Amino acid sequence: MEDCLAKKMEITVSEAEKRTGRNAMNIQETYTAYLIETRAVESQSEGQCSPVDSLWRRYSEFELLRNYLSVTYPHIVVPPLPEKRADFVWHKLSADNMDPDFVERRRIGLENFLLRVASHPVLCQDKIFYAFLTQEGGWKEMVNETGFQLKADSRLKALNATFRVKNPDKRFTELKHYSDELQSVISHLLRVRARVADRLYGVYKVHGNYGRVFSEWSAIEKEMGDGLQSAGHHMDVYAASIDDILEEEEHYADQLKEYLFYAEALRAVCRKHELMQYDLEMAAQDLTSKKQQCEELATGTVRTFSLKGMTSKLFGQETPEQREAKIKVLEEQIQEGEEQLKSKNLEGRDFVKSAWADIERFKEQKNHDLKEALISYAVMQISMCKKGIQVWTNAKECFSKM
Amino acid sequence: QDLSLPNGTPVDTSSPASSSSLLNRLQLDDDLDVETRDLFVTVDDPKKHVCTMETYITYRVTTKTTRAEFDLPEYSVRRRYQDFDWLRNKLEESQPTHLIPPLPEKFVVKGVVDRFSEEFVETRRKALDKFLKRITDHPVLSFNEHFNVFLTAKDLNAYKKQGMALLSKMGESVKYVTGGYKLRSRPLEFAAIGDYLDTFSLKLGTIDRIAQRIIKEQLEYLVELREYGPVYSTWGGLEVELSEPLEGVSACIGNCCTALEELSEDMTEDFLPVLREYILYAESMKNVLKKRDQVQAEYEAKLEAVALKREDRPKVPTDVEKCQDRVECFNADLKADMERWQNNKRQDFRQLLMGMADKNIQYYEKCLTAWESIIPLLQDKPETK
């Protein structure tokens, strides 16, 4: 990998703080601000720590950054932000944005986002990104000055609107289909996982009731009492253990969520290509019709029906001068159109080339990351099983002493 | 028939009171070595019988013995639940001073349970086996005449009818019929037993509810897991490099589902019935305590009546003497049975709870094996394939 920003700079989102302030509509609101700390990575030989720079950013600024990157680099699968609102929660987790656990997980997610961008070979070189990390004041103005909002295609917002592309690129069509399926399956997985977590929580917690009743029972027993009492204690330990287990599993859910949102970013690239192709075809179509018009005017033959043609037939032909003028305008337009089409074609080819390069990079990253996530999930399950065996073995020993 | 103890001493069985007190004075409890044990009973081989009027299950009851009370050394008969129920009633009637072990519940109230399902029949068989073994281990109950007939008779129904006829012929039954005497106060030791049984029943009831709740939660967890596993498989279908790892996770979760199902089944079939048996046991024991109270009340009332007559008779009427005998025997029998019961209870619960722990350990071990086995699959690099 080329020398990307992540290698030269340590980036962390180290803190989160509740703030109150006035928003654009001058209404008092509460929001969370995140502290971004950066430090240049020194070579090992120097052995001294360079100073830490820091600044505060809120979620909406992260959103602005991402929007800018998406528009400016349409061929790149841009890393996603952590979710805006808590979704796929199981009952014990709060859906409240101000909940400290949610804020904490968001902090980690935002840090992850910055690290992803900083390790991307193209995105890490962006000056706006660098300024986001290092320049506290005037960053928003800087972004707006790039005029990226003008470049943003409003048609992209209509996610499901279909554009009839005559010659779609099969690879992109397949990829778009894949990203749809991926989003669907990961959403399903996250929903069911949340329900599984809920149920598992219930199973563990009910065992805590054994602790209490064994204790009460042991009070009326002579020989059995001690064994019962100590076994009850282990039941309490068992019941309490689920909290940590499920908290750890949330990390796995977050990894899945990242790729759920990544799927959307992937889809966006396909969409942009689709629009590009559509625009190209429209431009080519327009050029063809203009050429035809020109030809008809020049030769006097009407090959295609046009209202103008009919009206001129009914109301009289134009003068030769008028015709000449028209032809000249069309010829100019045709020339313009041909140049535009050429550049659009070039643009299209460049887009496809660089998009596929990034898509390949993304695929490898995805396979690697998800494999790691599955391994860590399996490791979590193994740890949970071992804890279960331990607790029940301890309880069994207590029972054996009854 | 003359009863004789294992050491050859003849026993006078003419009065129930004397046999029990004599036998109880000897140390015949459950810590018998296998060599000194002379009666073995097993319940197995359930079979379904379909008749025009009804369908029912019979169990084979096998007896092996060297006791003189039995004509043959081995017996094999078939009995149905009704017969066990009859036996228990007979024991209660004829040995009112003793604690009679409980039977599994007669009626299955929860409509969903199938009376003829393999699981239900097996659970019942185990309980009936336990019932007979407890009687077998009891130094007095195991010598009961009705028990003998139950184990040996080819046609139990004929004997049952005969017993009814005899009863109606005899003016007096063996029952300790005591009419409406009110006990002023229970002696301390029996009050303590009563209190103990009350609390014991309560705690067992709570444990039963908790166990049921756990099973319910586990089954709901299982429902979700059954949906969870296949989603990984669906995902695997979309992927190329991740296809095998995802399939592996899906299969793994499937294995955990199977293990969980087995755990819940075991708890339902082995744990809950034994708990419930002990709750029934405690209930019947409380009734025996009440009977004892009655006997004591009768004695005290009669004694008081005599004292009120103010006759200077040094001799106490035989009537009152008999009552005193009864109270003393009842108390002795009950105390001995209580001690035996406490010991058995401790062993039974030790085994039951250790079994519960074991089943949970096995469940986690099965899951652990499943997850550990897919780690190499997940870590596998495509180049190495």
TrEMBL record, chain A:
Can you give the residue ranges of the PX domain? Answer: 12-139
Which Pfam family, just one, is annotated for this protein? PX
Give the SMART domains listed for this entry.
PX
What does the record list as GO biological process? positive regulation of autophagosome assembly; protein transport
Keyword Protein transport present in the record's keywords: the answer is yes
**Molecular function, one GO term:** phosphatidylinositol-3-phosphate binding
**Listed GO CC annotations:** early endosome membrane; plasma membrane; SNARE complex
CDD domains recorded: BAR_SNX4, PX_SNX4
Keyword set, alphabetical order: Protein transport, Transport
Family the UniProt entry places it in: Belongs to the sorting nexin family.
What is this protein's name?
SNX4 protein
TrEMBL record, chain B:
Q: Where is the composition biased (Polar residues)?
A: 1-13
Q: Which domain of life is it from?
A: Eukaryota
Locate the PX domain: which residues? 37-158
**What's a GO cellular component annotated to this UniProt protein?**
phagophore assembly site
| This protein's UniProt keywords | Protein transport, Transport
GO MF entries: phosphatidylinositol binding
Q: Where is this region: Disordered?
A: 1-22
Annotated Gene3D superfamilies: Arfaptin homology (AH) domain/BAR domain (1.20.1270.60), Phox-like domain (3.30.1520.10)
**GO BP annotations, alphabetical order:** autophagy of mitochondrion; endocytic recycling; piecemeal microautophagy of the nucleus; protein transport; reticulophagy
Q: Which InterPro entries does this one have? A: AH/BAR_dom_sf, BAR_dom, PX_dom, PX_dom_sf, SNX30_BAR
What is stated as this protein's family in its record? Belongs to the sorting nexin family.
Designated name of the protein: Sorting nexin-30
